[in-house]
Amino acid sequence: MTAKLMALSILTLSCVAAPAFAQDADARKLATQVCSSCHGPRGESISSAFPRLAGQQADYLEGQLRAFRDRTRADPMAQAYMWGMASQLDDATIRSLAAYYTSQKPVHAKAADPKLAQQGKSIYEAGVAGGQACVTCHGKDGQGNGAIPRLAGQHPEYLVKQLVLFKSTLRADSNAPIMHKISAGMSFDQMEAVAAHLGSL
Description:
- It is built from 9 helices and no strands.
- By secondary structure, it is mainly α.
- It folds into 2 domains: 3-102, Cytochrome c-like domain (Cytochrome Bc1 Complex, Chain D, domain 2), CATH 1.10.760; 114-199, Cytochrome c-like domain (Cytochrome Bc1 Complex, Chain D, domain 2, Orthogonal Bundle), CATH 1.10.760.10.
- Helix 2 runs antiparallel to helix 4 (91-102).
- The radius of gyration is 20 Å and the shape is globular.
């Protein structure tokens, strides 16, 4: 390959890659300068009012951000915070944001009451009232898969709040139908136990 041809090839590759790099940089800037006020600069939220996004499944994040933008996820917290925040996001930015948060190191587990966490582990692995076990979709260690979210290391209080929203059917999104059925058979105490287990993973 001549020097001229090699230079042309490098220039062509640079032009193709530049938009992707710019998009990733824009997403990183958005995450660290805007989203960070609630979720932390790397998605490591310290407030249980807002979920931890670090290490979350990219497909799940993309789906939720689109649902916020399209207003198909309409629980009260979504309306109060995320409808406005996501309204101007295009699909490319959503993909880049999801990739950014997925690449961040998940938050370390939070110690929980051993007895409560053990009770939650039993419910997580066996289900309640003949319902489907959580482990079936979310995995043994709560890692999630694709459109199924990672739950390990999440704020227990946030998880309980989401289970309550599912049970009341106020939360309606792509995973809602199955979660409506599962949460319908759960008591508040059982929700707290499962959340304690997951928060300790």
